[in-house]
């Protein structure tokens, strides 16, 4: 398989040095392998995504010298995510969940560091796969309606209890995570927030990422090491959906002199600011200490 990689920025703000370092590594690895790269605009978080940030991130990456061959935008791909959800429901891997929790609002974004999805207590989990024993709280609505109309309900992926998911990360080394311990039944779909009949809700970051990596035949995923646990979740989705698992390379995160992750800093050293201060791309790259 020819090397195919991806850059997957979220257009929720300006790219900072931390993003740029990860994308620079992804670009370097694709070039070294004579491969191609996708630019995937992860714009599913409708509240926080802005078209002007999409334009800015592409411009900033180009300024740095990063180029790609293909582009896609997640908001164009809802029918594909919906098809994957249906497949997971039909195979007993997904179940509707009526719990309303804070983590729902966050689910379309990749979890970084301390904002990871909390372990789900299992309130709506069916007693066995394929057998939908929702709690009485499901109310009057016919369960079948809920199941076939994604907009009406949230959905979770049923993780195999206590199964260890192991993979070899090309940078971070051997990794193991235990389903049900390191993470629980995670959200794969968030129900519609409006009454608009066209609103079918949204896939979570985990589902959209697994579907897109497979659709674009990504052979290697390069991203920050705060997403290692998400990789374990995505491997479970890949297995359930019959996808191939790519290779993974999780980069170290850039920290400031006090050890604070850059994204957590308010000034966050936006590429644009450095550029406006007169720094050249070469001077910015020098800061990566690669
Ligand atoms: N859009 C995600 C982020 O910015 C990318 C996650 C990924 O590379 O899978 O954190």
Q: Please give the number of β-strands.
A: 11
Gyration radius over CA = 20 Å
Order of helices and strands: EHEHEHEHHEEEEEHEHEHH
Q: List cofactors, ions and other ligands.
A: glutamic acid
> Strands of the largest sheet, in order across it?
4-5-8-9
Shape descriptor reads globular
What is the makeup of the main sheet? 4 strands, antiparallel
Low-confidence stretches: 133-141
Mean pLDDT: 88
Counting DSSP H or I runs of 4 or more residues, the number of helices is 9
N- to C-terminal distance: 27 Å
**How much helix, percentage-wise, in residues?**
25-40%
Structural class: alpha/beta
SSE diagram, text form:
Elements lengths: L3 E4 L9 H16 L3 E6 L9 H14 L5 E4 L4 H13 L3 E4 L4 H5 L36 H6 L5 E4 L6 E6 L3 E6 L8 E4 L11 E2 L1 H11 L4 E5 L3 H14 L5 E5 L19 H6 L4 H6 L4
Parallel strand pairs: 1-2, 2-3, 10-11
Antiparallel strand pairs: 4-5, 5-8, 6-7, 8-9
Helix pairs in contact: 6-7
The chain binds glutamic acid.
Characterise the protein shown here.
With 290 residues, the chain is of the alpha/beta class. The chain is 31% helix and 17% strand. It has 9 helices and 11 strands. Strands 4-5-8-9 form a 4-stranded antiparallel β-sheet. β1 (4-7), α1 and β2 form a beta-alpha-beta unit. α6 (205-215) crosses α7. The two termini are 27 Å apart. Mean pLDDT is 88; it is low at 133-141. The structure holds glutamic acid. Glutamic acid (GLU) is lined by residues 8-10, 42, 110, 209, 223, 227.
């Amino acid at each position: 398989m020819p090397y195919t990689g991806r850059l997957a920025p979220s257009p929720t703000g300006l790219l900072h040095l931390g993003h740029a370092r990860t994308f620079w590594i992804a670009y370097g690895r694709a070039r070294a392998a004579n491969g191609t790269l996708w630019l995937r605009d992860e714009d599913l978080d409708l509240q926080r995504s802005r078209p002007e940030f999409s334009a800015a991130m592409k411009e900033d990456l180009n300024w740095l010298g990063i180029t790609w061959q293909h582009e896609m935008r997640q908001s164009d791909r809802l029918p594909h995510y919906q098809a994957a959800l249906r497949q997971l429901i039909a195979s007993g891997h997904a179940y509707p969940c009526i719990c309303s929790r804070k983590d729902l609002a966050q689910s379309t974004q990749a979890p970084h560091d301390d904002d990871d999805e909390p372990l789900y207590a299992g309130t709506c989990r069916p007693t066995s796969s394929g057998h939908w024993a929702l709690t009485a709280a499901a109310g009057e609505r016919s369960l079948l309606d809920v199941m076939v109309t994604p907009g009406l309900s949230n959905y979770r992926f049923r993780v195999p209890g206590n199964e260890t998911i192991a993979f070899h990360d090309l940078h971070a080394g051997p990794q193991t995570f235990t389903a049900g311990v390191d993470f629980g039944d995670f959200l794969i779909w968030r129900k519609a927030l409006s009454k608009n009949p066209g609103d079918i809700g949204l896939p979570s970051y985990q589902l959209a990422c697994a579907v897109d990596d497979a659709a674009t035949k990504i052979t290697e995923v390069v991203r920050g090491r705060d997403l290692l646990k998400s990789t374990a979740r995505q491997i479970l989705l890949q297995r359930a959906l019959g996808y191939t698992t790519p290779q993974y390379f999780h980069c170290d995160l850039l920290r400031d002199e006090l050890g604070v992750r850059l994204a957590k800093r308010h000034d966050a050293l936006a590429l644009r600011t450095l550029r406006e201060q007169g720094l050249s791309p070469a001077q910015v790259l020098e800061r990566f200490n690669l």
